[in-house]
Every structure is written in C-alpha cells, then in structure tokens.
Amino acid sequence: MNSPQALPQIAGLHRTDVDLPGLMSVLSKHLYSTPMVALRELVQNAHDSIIRRRIEQPDWNAPARIDVGFDRAENVLRITDTGAGLTEPEIHAYLATVGVGYTRNLRQTGHDNSGLIGMFGLGFLSAFVLAKRVTVNTTSYRDPGLGHSYSSTNAEQYSVIPIAARPVGTEIILELQSDFQSLANSKRLQEILGHYCLLLKEPIYIAGNAEALNPEPPPWRQNDAARLHPVLERRRNLAFAARFEKNFEPICTLALHPGLHCTAAGLLWVQDGGSYGTSDNRNLSVFVRGMLLDDDARDLLPSWAGFIGGVIESSQLTPTASREDLQRDDHYRATQRAISEAVIEGLAEISRSQPEAWRRILARHNEALLGAALCDERLFLLIMDCVRIPSSRGDLPVREILSRGSLHVIFENRQGFEEMLFRIMGVPVAHGHRYAVVPFLRRWAQTKGVRLTELGTEQGNRQLFTLAELPTAQQAWLEEHLADGEKLIAARFHPEELPLVVVPDRDSELKRRLEADASDKQISQSALRLARQFTAKIDAEYDQRLYVNLDNPAIQTLLLARHAAPGQAALAARLLKAFKTLMAAQNPHAEKAPNQALIDLAASVKAIVEH
Predict the structure, then answer these.
(1) Whether pLDDT at 413 is above 80
(2) Distance from C-alpha of 166 to C-alpha of 517, rounded to nearest angstrom
(3) What pLDDT is recorded for position 185?
(4) Quick one: the chain helix, strand, coil %, rounded to 5?
C-alpha cells in the first residue's frame, strides 16, 4: 500500500505514526459484521466498473455482465466483469491505496446520479477477509492491448506485473482460506448474492447459469403500472414482498413513491401474522443504488407500525464506512417521514379499494391499530369506527359500546363492582386496562361529542351515583345494620332494582400502595414526594364505600319498617347485608369470605319464615 505523503515540519507539531499492519487488520478483518459482506463489496466494485465504462466510453454498447464462478478443487472464487478495467497507475492509485476510490472521484465530478455505489475506497480490502491470496487480472479500455496482474497475500505488500491482454474488464481471483471454502458452491453463492445484490441493475451470473441472479427490476422501477391490470399488479407486488418477508405472509402492499424532499422508492406491506400493541415485527431492507446495505432498518419505519415490512431503494441515504448501516442525517429523517406518510396513505387506499384485505388487516392488527391511531389524526379518523374495543360483552366497535350517549370504561383487569353493576343494567363496559383503550376512547368521545365515564375514579363515581341526604338517625341505623367497616353513603343510582353496592376506594388504595413502596424502597424519593402532594389530601380511613340506593323499594321499605316493625326490619337488613357480602365477594378487593354471608342468609330466611 502507498505510504502517506510526508508532513511539512512545522514548529510545535508532531507527526502521527501509523501502524500499517494494525490498520490493515482493522480495515480488512473488523470493518464488517460478517465476512460474507466481502462478496457484496467485490460485486459492487464490478458493478461500478461497468458504470464507469459507460460514462467514459460512450460508444461502448456491448452487453454488460458480472460473472461469479468457482473452482471447487482449487478452492478458488472468481469475480469477473466487463467494466472499464484498470491501468497500472490506477492499480497503484486506487486499488492499492486505502481510502481512495475512483468511484468517489467520478461521483464528485457530476456523476452522482449515474448509479455508482462506492464511496470510501475500502471495499477491495474485504477480499483479504476471505482469501489467503488475492489476484487481480485487468485490462483497461484505455489500453486494450495491455494487461496487468496485481497480487497480494496480506494487503500490505503487493506486486504488479504485465500480462497478456485479456478482454477489457477485471477478474478477481480469491484463493479461499480454509474457513471459507464453502463459498465454492453454487447454492451458497446464490444465497449470499441473492440477499445483497438482487436489485443491482447490472446482470449477475453465477457458475455459468444462463439466467441472471437479478433478471428483472423491482416493481417501482417498472413503468408498466398504467398498462397492468390492478389484480395482476397486486399479485406481482405480493410475490416480490414474499421474497423479503421472512416470517409472515404479506396481506397487501403499499407503495413508496419519490417526492420533493425524499427520492426513496420502494414497496411496503402489511404482515399477515397477528400482532398486539407492544409487538414489533417491523422489518425493512434498505438498498442504496441497488445494493443491500441494511436488512434490519426498522427505525426508518414508524415506531407504531409493528406489523409493517418493506424494501426501499435510495440514492440519498448515506451509508457508514462498513456500508451496513445508515447515517442519521437529514436524508435519513426525510426518508422516515416519507415512509410514515406512505403507510398512512397506503392504509387509507387499501380501506377504499381492497375491502377484503382491509378486513384482514383489522382482524390481525386490531390492538396495534388502536395504539397507532393515537399517533396520527388521519389514522385515527380512518379506523375510529372500524377497530374493536375489548369490553364486558367481547370485542365490539365503539358505537356498540355507546349507551345513552355515554361510553363507560373500567380500569380493573378483573371483575369489579362496576362491571357487575353495568351487567345488571345491560350496558357494555370497555376494558380500560387493555392496551391503548382509554386514550383511544377519550379521543373518540371528544370527536363524537359524547361523554366518557371512567369507572372507578372519583369523577366516574360522581357520574354514577347522585348523592342524597338522610336524617342522622336513619343514617346511623343503616350503618349499624348494613356496614362492615365501609363508609356508608346515601345515593340514588341506576338500576333502581339494585339496593346497594360496595365500591373500593381506589384513592385510598393508591395511598397505601405508595406507603408500601416507600417502605420497600421500590420508588425514588423524588417520585414519592411528587405523589404525596396528590395523596396528602386523601382520607384513607375507609378502604371501601357502601352506596345505598334510596330509589330501591327494599331500602325504602326497610327505612319505613325500622320503627313500625324493628325486629322484622333487622331481619331484612341482615338479609341485605348477606346479599351485599355475596356481591362483594366477586370484587378483587373483597376481604370478607362469603361463608358467613351464606350462614346469615339461611338464618335470615329461616327467621322470617318462622316469624
């Protein structure tokens, strides 16, 4: 390799020494995540050599090709192209100089849109990852009567000798190391190059096959969409998507078109596998000028789109030095925005033009779409009446949960008094503990102008129970005969047939939990101080509240009978108290076992009958 030019001697400056063997080891053996990337780099060099020849030799019109062959007996791999070839000075200047590449020079002189891929002048070094010796036989179009052969075993020292002229272009011969002798295999080469080079424009032939590895361009490069029947176009797009989707069957495809701020084009798709709100099956392959750089660029997809896969191609995205990742620059962010728009607009188009596919999307990704709808107003408006909400009656569209102009949502993940109460009323209750349900319903209620009752909160209880007042003596009598440590509250509520209901005080529960977390050191002091500002005003004397329904005939009769027939009133109250305990036993907060309530129930019935 060429040594760097001597630095001028300036007072106060010192020269940086370079450990050339160490640098070569880093570049040739540690730059790439997998040695297989070396094949991609060498094929890319062959591709760029063909593009260069087209640029510099305009009258050249022979068919271009890249051939990848092998000799299994000799453990040799050959990569041959019909490109521009190299002169001897170019071998020294570009092939044997780290960080200098002819391709980059071409791009910087007005040929950036020509399809050239290389940027850093490092790709050739990857050959030494695979090979114990690398030979390059080349003939330049500039001097087709003369050939040269480069040879090196370590990329640090090399030789160049003249050889008989060969057809214009370059042949790279890799004498494979023992660890990589499996590359001398047609199936293995098809697998590796089919992964990285499928979208290259120049044809690649493996082991003399008559058909190229990359026989046709991807859908977004084909200009026959206007002539192709929509059904055939969808079928072609799905077939292309299936080649890249590793885990699921694509349901439908969404097009990414170039725009003013982003030149990326490609094909996205919705996966058929069922997903949940927190599952992330995003997969995106990114090709830059036809070469795969990243097959897991999921961060370019919206974070909420855990059910989307895709393939995109861009000439603006900037690769890192290893060309296995992308720089997070302005082009990257513009591509992110363009892909997000393509997903949203594509889903809207599917809902209009492919109703069967849209139904499958809703069925597979209902919960994920609930969360996704919160990220974009257009997406929310698209699915607000399509998605289903988990409720006490199963998964229902929001309009079927709406009752009397109000939506009801419960936060418990187990049955509480609210669900029992609304089951009696015949009103479905949404399960707010499920992913994204509560914020989705809040936005839905705001959009539709309806009321959302969040059961289990103080505000929700006020909407359920209309407080009433009782004379002190009646209040005291009910507390004595009906309460078991609950705070008894006189109220009026629906249904009138329900005499009473026990409601856990969730604010008190929160205060107790914070104290427990503090004692167990499970919460930071700063967070604890903030939470206590809220809980300081909470009266935690009562864990539960007993709402007594003054509209209920049994309660009305009981209050009237406490003077006229105090013995019978006490028996009836004992019966209601047993009823209360049995109902509360379904509540996860209930502490009293139902056994005593069953005993009291039997005893009360017996006493009433005997009386």
Answers:
(1) no
(2) 79
(3) 92
(4) 40, 20, 40
H-only helix segments in 268-416: 330-353, 355-373, 377-383, 398-401
Mean pLDDT of 450-458: 81
Beta strands in 505-602 (DSSP E): 544-549
User: Tokens 């015949």 label which residue?
Assistant: 426
Whether the link from the prior residue into 355 is cis, omega within 30° of 0, is no
Going from N- to C-terminal start, the domains of the chain cover 20-206, 219-367, 387-463, 465-505+542-610, 506-541
Fold of 20-206: Heat Shock Protein 90 (3.30.565)
Q: Is the pLDDT of residue 585 over 80?
A: no
Give the integer Cα–Cα distance in Å for 405 and 448: 10
Of 272, 286, 283, whose CA–CA distance to 305 is shortest? 283
* Tokens linked to 571: 């028996």
Distance CA 194, CA 179 (A): 21
Instruction: Using CA atoms of 332, 337, 339, 340 in order, give the dihedral in degrees to the nearest 10.
Output: 140
pTM of the model: 0.74
Q: Which of 433, 357, 369, 374 is nearest to 397 (CA)?
A: 369
- The 10 Å Cβ neighbour count of residue 521 is 8
Beta bridge mates, 454: 409
CA–CA separation, 462 and 491 (whole Å): 10
The alpha carbon dihedral of 268, 270, 273, 274 has a sign of positive
Strand partners, 116: none
Q: Which CATH architecture has domain 219-367?
A: 2-Layer Sandwich (3.30)
pLDDT, average across residues 308-316: 93
